[in-house]
Design brief:
16 helices; D-Maltodextrin-Binding Protein, domain 2; nine-stranded mixed sheet; 2 domains; about 45% helix; disordered N terminus
């Protein structure tokens, strides 16, 4: 064999070896498990493996903040990409347990809104805490269209309910007091803004029939007619309306909640993790397929071109709904929840 032939053979062998190594590569994803994991597998994981040769090893996990902390303390990272709820994300971000993301590489075509692209995580799915209204209990000729209306007990008499926590209620109170949803955290970040929110809550407190603690409670209270107006999670109200109960969602001033995806600090596969996040977040077709199966839509542009209009308008990131809402600031609450929760508990029992 000539030197050229030997060199060619070595080059081909090296290329094949690299291809095999890539094909045998795996990416470990820490998620929620259950039915959601099965949807993820069909919509994202298996197609990603088919296109890249990289197998996604999906783990069912809980208390991810504690697990991430243990990994960082031990200096041994077992996960590459993690799904995080807002409090988990805030804890991990503030603690420095996540890798920075290169959004120019993840979203080169700019199909994601800026709100979806955080320095160290992406918003992969959403739901909203919204106002739900029993339309048959509205005064004749009136529509409740804002949190200011919710606070207007003279024009809109009837039972009301809110969740028993500071998250959302402080934001709703400020919006009812005239703060634009886009400015709510600028105001809430100040001591004066927090005082203003609690003062506004003082006005509505005597008219709250119940302070709910589980997502099924406002649904049941609306169904029974115990309350006419309440905060609630959008997916549950959509189902209630489908059952024939005369309820509707008011998206104006709603709080969008995010499911985040992030790369764990210390992962040796950060570049591959970014490719997986890009695959998950930047395709409107794949995102529409996911949202059609699980009612937690992403924020990618063009998503609703692939979902029937009657179904899309019931989702929080639909163009008809998103502009009047705010994205709940997980990092703000990560920094302030302990103090504001203590103040809330003192206030609720006054």
């Amino acid at each position: 064999m000539t030197q050229l032939s030997k060199l060619t053979a070595l080059t081909v062998s090296a290329t094949l070896a690299a291809s095999v190594a890539f094909a045998d590569d795996t990416l470990t994803y820490a998620g929620s498990g259950g039915g959601l994991a099965q949807v993820m597998k069909g919509v994202f994981d298996d197609p990603f493996a088919a296109e890249t040769g990289v197998t996604v090893n999906a783990l069912a996990t809980s208390d991810r903040a504690s697990a991430l902390k243990a990994m960082q303390v031990a200096g041994k990272v077992a996960w590459d990409v993690a799904e995080l709820n807002p409090i988990e994300y805030a804890t991990a971000s503030l603690s420095g347990w996540l890798e920075p993301l290169d959004w120019a590489a993840i979203d080169p075509d700019g199909v994601l809104p800026q709100d979806a692209k955080l320095a160290d995580a992406g918003i992969a799915a959403t739901f909203s805490t919204i106002m739900a209204v029993r339309t048959d209990q509205l005064p004749e000729g009136k529509q409740m269209t804002s949190w200011a209306d919710f606070w207007d007990v003279e024009t809109f008499p009837g039972g009301r309910a809110l969740q028993n926590q500071p998250i959302d209620n402080l934001e709703f109170a400020l919006i009812a007091d005239g703060v634009a949803p886009a400015d709510v955290y600028t105001v809430l970040a100040t001591e004066e803004g927090q005082d203003r929110a609690f003062a506004k809550l003082d006005e509505i407190k005597p008219y709250i029939t119940a302070w709910w603690t589980a997502g099924a409670q406002p649904v049941q209270m609306l169904s029974d007619g115990e309350v006419a107006y309440t905060s609630a999670w959008n997916g549950r109200i959509t189902k209630l309306a489908e059952e024939g109960v005369p309820v509707e969602i008011n998206w104006n001033g709603g709080g969008i909640k995010a499911s985040y995806v992030a790369i764990v600090k210390g992962s040796e596969k950060a570049d591959l993790g970014q490719k997986y996040i890009s695959y998950m977040m930047t395709s409107p077709e794949r995102s529409a397929q996911f949202a059609s199966m699980v009612p937690y839509p992403a924020m990618v542009k063009g998503l609703y071109d692939h979902i029937p209009e009657e179904k899309g308008v019931m989702m929080p990131t639909h163009p008809n709904n998103i502009d009047g809402q705010f994205v709940t600031d997980a990092v703000f609450w990560g920094k302030n929840l302990s103090e504001l929760k203590e103040r809330w508990e003192d206030w609720i029992f006054e």
